[in-house]
Amino acid sequence: QVQLVESGGGLVQAGDSLRLSCGASGRPFNIYIMGWFRQAPGKEREFVGATTRTGGSTRYADSVKGRFTIARDNTKNMFYLQMNSLKTEDTAVYYCAAAAGLGITITSGEYTYWGQGTQVTVSS
Questions:
Q1: Residue 101 DSSP SS3
Q2: 8 A C-beta contact, residue 36 and residue 96
Q3: Could you tell me the pLDDT band of residue 102, with boundaries at 50, 70 and 90?
Q4: What is the DSSP string of 35-99?
Q5: Distance of CA 50 to CAs 72, 83, 89, 96, Å?
Q6: CB atoms within 10 A of CB 103
Q7: What is residue 106's three-state secondary structure?
Q8: Percent of the chain with pLDDT over 70
Q9: Are 98 and 2 in contact (CB under 8 A)?
């Protein structure tokens, strides 16, 4: 079992920056692929980005590429999402998730453990 807890969400204006954090406890953190997903009202949960076990490789959704950056600190069991140049369409509940396996996956069903989510609201 892995427990994931997100923090850092809030209300910001378009163009602002925000950093989300995800703390992990339980099994060794560095055995998991870590991903960020988001779900806006009335929409399906969508992939935002993910990183490998070491953090050496990342993948992003086209909608956030160049604006969002993922990082992980395996010494602290922490996972981050730096969001810059936020847009109103980035408004959603953001979830961190952990997946067993060797490579990055963008499919939510392949992630076993999920945090409770943190709300990000971007106003115009």
A1: coil
A2: yes
A3: confident
A4: EEEEE-TTS--EEEEEE-TTSS-EEE-TTTTTTEEEEEETTTTEEEEEE-S--GGG-EEEEEEEE
A5: 10, 14, 20, 9
A6: 11
A7: coil
A8: 100
A9: yes
